[in-house]
């Protein structure tokens, strides 16, 4: 793993879509939810075509070893949004890597990139 790579675990999947909507390479939008009644550090996950699809894991029971919890990520992303890309999908988890600013700029240059629509 490269030193600057930050991996996250996506949980609480949308009941309609479940995990079937996730594909390796899918772009995810990470949005802070400071008014969330259950977790002050909640980070919502959104995708093109599907809207809200889950949350970033924030419990020792749900955060996959080697990934960052929502609490660790919360202050590292801006208030507007951050983006991640799905890297692994297992029977129980979706693991994504938070994208760096340069990667986001490159994706925004592509008019068909999902990043431009979420």
Report on this structure.
One of its GO terms (molecular function) is nucleic acid binding. Keywords: Hydrolase, Metal-binding. InterPro entries: HIRAN. The protein has one domain: 2-Layer Sandwich (Alpha-Beta Plaits), CATH 3.30.70.2330. Helix content is 12%, strand content 30%. It contains two helices and six strands; from the N terminus they run E-E-E-E-H-E-E-H. The protein has a six-stranded antiparallel β-barrel with strand order 1-4-3-2-5-6. The model has no long low-confidence stretch (mean pLDDT 88).
CATH architecture: 2-Layer Sandwich
Number of domains: 1
Q: List how many beta strands DSSP finds.
A: 6
Order of helices and strands: EEEEHEEH
End-to-end Cα distance, whole Å, is 28 Å
Named CATH topology: Alpha-Beta Plaits
Unreliable segments (pLDDT under 50, ≥5 consecutive)?
A: none
Furnish the topology, listing elements before pairings:
Blueprint (H helix, E strand, L loop, with lengths): L6 E5 L15 E6 L10 E5 L3 E6 L13 H5 L7 E8 L4 E5 L2 H9 L9
Antiparallel strand pairs: 1-4, 1-6, 2-3, 2-5, 3-4, 5-6
Protein name: HIRAN domain-containing protein
GO molecular function, one term: zinc ion binding
Pfam families: HIRAN
């Amino acid at each position: 793993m490269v030193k600057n790579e930050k991996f996250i675990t996506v949980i609480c999947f949308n009941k309609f879509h479940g995990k079937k909507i996730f594909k390796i390479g899918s772009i995810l939008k990470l949005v802070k939810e400071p008014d969330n009644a259950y977790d002050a550090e909640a980070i919502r996950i959104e995708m093109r075509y599907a809207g809200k699809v889950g949350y970033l894991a924030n419990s020792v029971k749900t955060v996959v070893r080697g990934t960052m919890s929502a609490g660790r990520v919360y202050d590292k992303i801006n208030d507007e949004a951050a983006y991640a890309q799905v890297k692994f999908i297992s029977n129980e988890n979706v693991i994504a890597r938070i994208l760096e600013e340069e990667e986001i700029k490159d994706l925004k240059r592509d008019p068909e990139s999902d990043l431009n629509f979420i």
